[in-house]
Amino acid sequence: MEKLNGKDFKMMIESAGNNLANHHHHIDSLNVFPVPDGDTGTNMHLTFTSGREQVKEMKSESFGDVAKVFSRGLLMGARGNSGVILSQVFRGFAQSVDKKVEINAVDLGAAFLRGTEVAYRAIMKPVEGTILTVVRESADYANVMVERNPEMSVNEYFEIMVKEAEESLKRTPDLLPVLKEVGVLDSGGSGFVEVIRGFKAAVDGNPVELSKEEESTDSPAEEKEVGYRTQVHVLLDRLAKEDHDKVEKLRMKLELLGDTLIVREEAGRLLVSINTLMPGQVLNAVQRYGTFEKVQIENLSGELSESIVEDVNLEPVEYAVIAVSSGEGLNSMFKDLGATHIVTGGQTMNPSTESFVSVISKVKAHHVIILPNNSNIIMAAEQTKDVLPEEDIHVLPTKSIPQGLSALIAFDPDAELEDNMEAMEEALEHVVSGSVTYSIKDTSIDGVDIKSGDYMGIMDKTIKISTPVAYKTAKGLIDAMAEGRDEEYSVFTLIGGEGVTDSDLELLKHYINKKYPDFEVETYLGEQPVYSYYIGLD
């Protein structure tokens, strides 16, 4: 095959999506930590599915058009660090092939190089031995080879790229010692290899089919995500005269964001209705044409159906504070401390960029502050700035639930933004974060031997102890957190997860009071899944 058009790329995307779906459980198992939330494969699968769903009904046969819409879908559906990096690779890829109806192997080489550049720029501190390395090394090598042979077919290009990506993946443990310690290859890099294997299979005429097992075992959460659609109705008042000629341009822009589109002018008003996966982008595009009079966003996913009608002309509030949380008790803690909105998610379910965009699009605030409360969610939250550049969005890099709670304690709704951000950043940096969860496999990491089913005590990113009993593990973790702490640390916060009782928390409180009498102890039932305890020391 010498050239690819939009129809070919759609087939490639379908093949790669199926291949990633068929292997995502294996990719999950490659995560270094043996925690039950090792979800790199799932995050990449759901991210890719978001892009695939966006191009499925496209009629255009322009490669550049399909790449552009695919990139937007990935951006909005991006979950976890691996999903965000994947979306950035194809963001750069789409920029390179913009307006190209057909591309050849030389264009592919340039596009993947551009994707590499954009992905690296998106990461503040790139780490080698990860998906970034696999993308860069395979893209660099394939581009060198295509420069030497510009007449190369796209089949030959992908054969070279896949082989180099596989070799690069094998080298990841030599670049990232923790991979070698645990005996696994990088999970994000493994996901990227499956994507380009899927591309290669399609251009070779043997596109990957979804396995029977995957067809029958997709989790309900994944099914809901894939089928999630919203219907957006917007009524704009005072449509500016000079904007009448731009309505057709708006229509063309919205056609890339969804289907069942209506754009109609009525007596000085502009009516827009569209089914979309990206309501935030729809509102962003439409708002330039007048003043919002009414916005209605309706979820069309069956049992989750709900209608939200907002009078968007209400005076904006000063702050919207969005916290990521899971568990009724934990959600209440965040709301009591000043969070205005909760995005459901956390360790076992990383929310997508669209999850944040959807919330921000429904509120009107001078300043938006996002608390991701997990290191694997920060990048997805950061992408909201690209999607909604007109909003004043600030992502506080909270990496744990205790950090998020401490940051909110420092938040003052009457203070200036700069003062709030400074106080909240200072608060989260002072927190020592701990958690207790169970292991899903036998392994040895951080010098600790771990058996499947045992409970691990994790302080920040280090496993400190593993025992068969959650309470015993929690005590050992508390000891590790308290060791060597000066008088600046004075309060332990214990948050019990699902299955933990007030009595369990009282036993741990008694243990701390007896062994560390200088510390105060606060206890809460957070009811969070998977993690028996969140423990904060401040």
Largest sheet: 6 strands, mixed
What's the number of domains?
4
The termini sit apart by 62 Å
Name the structural class: alpha+beta
What amount of the residues lies in strands? 15-25%
Biggest sheet, spatial arrangement of strands: 14-13-10-17-15-16
Give the strand tally.
17
Percent helix = 40-55%
Mind telling me the CATH superfamily name of the largest domain? DhaL domain
What is the 3D form?
globular
CATH level-3 fold name of the largest domain? Serine Threonine Protein Phosphatase 5, Tetratricopeptide repeat
Second CATH tier, the architecture of the largest domain? Alpha Horseshoe
Q: Low-confidence runs (pLDDT<50, min 5 residues)?
A: 216-228, 301-314
The gyration radius over C-alpha positions equals 25 Å
Look at the structure and give the CATH class of the largest domain.
Mainly Alpha
- pLDDT average, as an integer? 87
Q: What is the overall number of helices?
A: 21
Explain what you see.
There is one protein chain. This protein is an alpha+beta fold. The chain folds into 4 domains: 219 residues, DhaL domain (Serine Threonine Protein Phosphatase 5, Tetratricopeptide repeat), CATH 1.25.40.340; 72 residues, Alpha-Beta Plaits, CATH 3.30.70.120; 113 residues, 3-Layer(aba) Sandwich (Rossmann fold); 106 residues, Hypothetical Protein Tm841, Chain: A,domain 3. Helices cover 49% and strands 19% of the residues. It has 21 helices and 17 strands. The strands form 4 sheets. A 6-stranded mixed beta sheet has the order 14-13-10-17-15-16. α6 packs parallel to α9, α7 packs antiparallel against α9 and α20 runs parallel beside α21. The longest helix has 24 residues.
